[in-house]
Amino acid sequence: MPKIVIVGGGYSGITTAKGLAGKDRDVTLVSSTPYLEWGIAASYSLTHPEELHKAVAGKIDPPKGVNLVIGTAVSMTDTEVLLDNQQVLPYDALVIATGLNIPLFRPRLGQSWAERSKEVTEVGNALRKASTVVIAGGGPIAVEFAGDVREVNPSAKVTLVCSGDRALPYLNWEYRRKLDKMLKTLNIEVLTNERVTDEEHSITKKELTLSSGKTLEADCFIPAYTRGYGAGWTGLADSSGKIPVNKHLQCESAPKVFAVGCSTLSKMSEQWKIIFEASTVQSNVVKFLKNSSLSTHFDHHFNVTHPKTQKIGASTFAWYDLTQMFINIKAWPFLCGFPFFPGCLCGCDVMACGYCCNYPEGAGTARQLTKSMYQAAELGQKLGTAPEQQEMK
Ligand SMILES: Cc1cc2nc3c(=O)[nH]c(=O)nc-3n(C[C@H](O)[C@H](O)[C@H](O)COP(=O)(O)OP(=O)(O)OC[C@H]3O[C@@H](n4cnc5c(N)ncnc54)[C@H](O)[C@@H]3O)c2cc1C
After folding, report:
1. Are the beta carbons of 314 and 367 closer than 8 angstroms?
2. In ligand 1, which atom is closest to the CA atom of 145?
3. How far apart are alpha carbons 304 and 333 in whole angstroms?
């Protein structure tokens, strides 16, 4: 029976494992933690630690027909994966699904649930008490997090330090204006063209040094940017930690190896892109094992180049950038015949948004997205059982 090993017990790994499980295959999923934390909820969980358990499956129940192994992959050869606990996993096909590296917003490799819940609780409590909070990063996670911090701590001085000349530089002018206005309303100061030299988060008073040599005092310092992808351990990855792949999502230099969510074809880490990548890899792994020719990967979300949704606080403000779904949703009423058709026909996949045929944005959208984030987390929880609540205390 051919052996398939999937490394990474996150959304990419589990989605791929589900589709590969079969009677004639021996599928093993390697997760560095015995629990699964829903990454999308990270900003909210860090500011609302008492709700962390809602976004966590305490124990991963692997898809039917899949063996679950808890351990961290540290190296690999052409035929085997070696884990930190010295376990050796032989493979005929290997799927790398080790995601993004974003400290604090994702559990550390091998971090126990007790350590993780303690860490999130301490950070959340410190953020609520802090007089000064410095957040490093000008991307979507940093902006969402700054809004969440403001919601739980209305009086703190919150500073966002961006290395570029603005936060979310990919936005069009309309959304740049909205973002700037919202950051001003929330009294979030933005320092541009600066980097904080520290890379570790801290929740005790600290003087931070910026790239310009200036200093900044912070009761809490939270770096909120990615440190690249997590496939470095394979020895196959490029400098950003991604696996270089061909059009079949197959590693160029190691044909038995495929990648989901962390390949050079993964332009950004996003759920829908992952679903399509997992589907290509599932079918190509099976074809590879049968010596058949492989399918070409097609990214059905090819027009999505930056996050479709952006929250600035869980119930303060958010937008759903429909230009990322279709060319311009404002044109859709004319195309679909609105208002003469009953119901929402725009297919924007936010049917419940209440802002039909316009850019949905505002506090309502923020709450809607937060709600759907947890609905999705509940789906994720079906993969496992809820964590022990007493460990949260
Ligand atoms: C605050 C925040 C908000 C987000 N919002 C959105 C959103 O609105 N929409 C959206 O689509 N996406 C969003 N994302 C991104 C989303 O979380 C990722 O797209 C998704 O989690 C990627 O799944 P993944 O399985 O590829 O990676 P991960 O979720 O990072 O999972 C990778 C897994 O691999 C494990 N692993 C890594 N290295 C090893 C190793 N050597 N051995 C064993 N295991 C290993 C890790 O422990 C982890 O469990 C957000 C992320 C954050 C942090």
Report:
1. yes
2. 1
3. 22
User: Could you tell me which residues are beta bridge partners of residue 18?
Assistant: none
Residue 174's identity, in one-letter code, is: E
Q: How many residues does the chain have?
A: 393
CA–CA separation, 366 and 88 (whole Å): 45
Per-residue DSSP letter, 49: G
- For ligand 1, atom 6, name the residue with the nearest CA: 40
Q: What are phi and psi of 97, to 5 degrees?
A: -140, 50
CA–centroid distance, 345 to ligand 1, in Å, is: 32
Evaluate: CB of 98 within 6 angstroms of ligand 1: yes
Residues 227/51, Cβ–Cβ less than 8 Å: no
Tokens of 85: 């606990």
Q: How many whole angstroms from 179 Cα to the centroid of ligand 1?
A: 25
What is the radius of gyration, based on Cα positions, of the chain? 22
116 residue type, one letter: R
Summarised one tens digit per residue, pLDDT across range 193-214 is 999 999 999 999 999 999 999 9
Share of the chain above pLDDT 70, in %: 85
The DSSP output letter for 322 is G
**Cross-strand pairs, 66:** 27
0.90 surpassed by complex ipTM = yes
315, β-bridge pairs: none
| CATH number, domain 3-32+71-101+228-301, options 3.30.420.270, 3.40.710.10, 3.50.50.60, 3.90.1570.10 | 3.50.50.60
pLDDT at 152: 98
Is there an atom of ligand 1 within 6 Å of 73 CB? yes
